[in-house]
Amino acid sequence: MTTIQPRLTQVFRFVRCNYADGMAELAYAFDQGEEMVERIRFPDAPPLPAERRQAFDAALKLLHLVAGVSYYKAGVPPRIEVEPLDGQTADLCEALYLHGLAEFAYRNGLDLRGRIAFPRSAPLRSEAPLVRKAPVLDLPERTLIPIGGGKDSLVAVEAIKAIGGEATAVWIGNSPLIAACAERTGLPTLNIQRELSPVLFELNRLGAWNGHIPVTAVNSAILAVAAILYGYDSIAFANERSASAATLEYEGQQVNHQWSKGFAFEAMLSEWLHSHVAADLDYCSLLRPYSELAITRAFARLTPYFDAFSSCNRNFRILGPRPVDRWCGQCPKCHFVFLALAPFLPKPRLLSIFGRNLLDDESQAAGFDALLEYQDHKPFECVGEGAEARAAMHALSQRPEWQEDALVARFIREILPQLDPAQLALEPWLEPSAEHRVPARLRSALEALG
Question: Which of 78, 299, 361, 428 has the most crowded Cβ, counting Cβ within 10 A?
Fold first, then answer.
């Protein structure tokens, strides 16, 4: 039983990482305190081919560094102790810990700028910077698609299926709802287990700092290890372009709840994998060119998933036959998905998915106001931009079947007169952006999303 006072610690140590028989162990410690050991289990893990050993070790080292964010934030000590890193690795880690913990820092009144520094190895003396490039491993042409139980990953699945791509639906953890969605895809499935150190929960009891961590980054690092272990040449997340938009700005720093889903992190990790792990291991978001509204429009065509999916963070672990079992109807995710689907589905069909009409409930006004960025900032949640929400609400305000619902009528009466009509069109949100890192092999899947 630890007696350490986490907020008084001086050093966060990366102690060791190892892998054997399908299980990775990642060990950390504060000062000279008790080890915190996280375990990640890869089911039915095959023997690792000798030609992939170096790549696997590099991916495992990255996972150790990235997963450490869950433990570092318990104490936020002034010093990080780890074997010195090359510049690109240190840059990636420092960006992840600073920006990925920005919401955590904001909510706890902390300023992490200038505090997070990973030890760096001395640069090699040469006239030009050394450009690393990992070897080509001839990884099998197949894709890991992370499933989260929500609409976005299911859109990505169907886009890759549409081009005949070989893929596996993968998820981390024990959610029965996610398992049911993965099974509904018809793809082969892979369920990886992550077990946090029990010491972390003891530190929380002793007053550790707590809050949001960049879990998508941790999952990405786990999947990089899985790609080398099982043999996949691509990892295709379903993060939209809206994920790159900050939630708010605080004392000169952008605070983005979805930073590790954004394009900046995607680019940094993709380039790191190409230089340190395998030149033919691609990491991307298949949906990066698209807004949330464009993705929602694509999902509105995927009727077989309507009774299985849920984006609700409160109810997503519950698997039940009724909509109320999958949608709490109160959280920002429920509000946003309802609003984003409304322009693209017949009203009765939408109400059957949620089991109620969220826009005809005056008690939900504050939640929708936050989505619209009306008298509030965007919620700390994985939701679209305020301008997207305003465009969707404006579209509903033009349709007779929605105009009398309480919150649409309120929008027409109170909010719409304050908005610029030129900024409310839905159509521009449905056009793709050119910014993405989708590899050539999967690029035709983008056409299936049009």
Answer: 299
